[in-house]
Amino acid sequence: MKRFRSSTLGKCGLSRIHIPRRGIKEVWQSIPLELRRVLQCIPIVEMPPYTTLPPDLSRWEILERFKIVKHARIAKGSIILEICCGPQAFSTMALAFAVGSTGKVTAMDNMANWTRENNPWNTRFLATLKGAKLDRRVDPLITDARKIPFPNDCFGLVTCIHGVRSFEDRNAIVVAMREMLRVTKKRIFVAETSPYAENKAQEAHLAMYNLRRPVFLAQDKKKVGDIHYLKEEELKDLAKKAGASKVKTKLVRVNQPHHLAFFPISVIDKVSDEKVKLKLKKKWFEAVKLLEKYGEEYPPVITMTCWK
């Protein structure tokens, strides 16, 4: 596994990061030409020096979403509602590609707190879709997933891909799933990273990611999200509580690097309780050592289809 050093990263405790054995362009050779053209439209972005994020992060993340979306069995011409789409359109890109030119994706997220000047929908989200010429297939909508403003049975499919972890707690997940089941005609599709590590790189990801929730709680930010990844049985239980008549899950091994767990130690510095801060910093440095040694990789992803 190749590595490179960064003195700037070293100042925050991370002096080396791993580069995947295969670059994104090499991976392209194994994917369909049409998908390759979409990924080529995604720009290379210069990332801040204190992060472990590679400049081709968006391409890696969108490729992962394509791998997941194929398990949703989406037909061309489908009318889909996507909740928790996020400002970077990672899953939205894959869904818009899947529905084809005759389909439509309503991409929904709760971004009410964003100001008009700092609205990611006007920058990253729409720019990404326009660059790939998929923007005409997508209608963005800002609203709360627990109060979906559509009548019953009006979407062919409702999805939530890597969005479960964004809810504040399990009760909020149940309420959102209940709404998803209400507005879909037959089924919903949910995908979320699992807490199952199958190698050291996945353990490193979980060690860093699992610090996010304790840090937010220590800052009294209960509604920020980033809850711990749920186990397969936990997700199934929540779906049944939401009213699903049938639930089917599958564990998908993505087999590619993951770069989104890391956060700078300066975030922990905002914790006011000194004892809690010291404990969190100790765990942060332990997680950093794992990232330095093993890199960071996607744990298996749980895909879940639920019927009304």
Commentary on this structure:
By secondary structure, this protein is of the alpha/beta class. It has a single domain, classed as 3-Layer(aba) Sandwich (Rossmann fold). Helices cover 36% and strands 16% of the residues. The protein has 11 helices and 9 strands. The protein has helices spanning 7-11, 24-28, 33-40, 57-69, 90-99, 124-131, 170-183, 200-209, 212-218, 232-241, 274-294, and strands at residues 3-5, 16-18, 79-83, 104-109, 138-142, 157-161, 187-193, 246-252, 301-307. A 7-stranded mixed sheet has the order 5-4-3-6-7-9-8, sandwiched between helices. Strands 1-2 form a two-stranded antiparallel ribbon. α7 (170-183) links the parallel β6 (157-161) and β7 (187-193). α4 (57-69) packs across α5 (90-99). The longest helix is centred in the last third of the chain and has 21 residues, at 274-294. It is globular and about 55 Å long.
CATH architecture: 3-Layer(aba) Sandwich
CATH fold descriptor: Rossmann fold
Order of helices and strands: EHEHHHEHEHEEHEHHHEHE
User: Uncertain segments of ≥5 residues (pLDDT<50)?
Assistant: 1-20
Q: Separation of termini?
A: 46 Å
Structural class comes to: alpha/beta
Helix content: 25-40%
Mean pLDDT: 85
Question: What is the name of the CATH class?
Answer: Alpha Beta
From the spread of the alpha carbons, the general shape counts as: globular
Tell me the radius of gyration: 19 Å
CATH superfamily membership? Vaccinia Virus protein VP39
* Helix run count: 11
Beta-strand content bin:
15-25%
- Overall structural domain count: 1
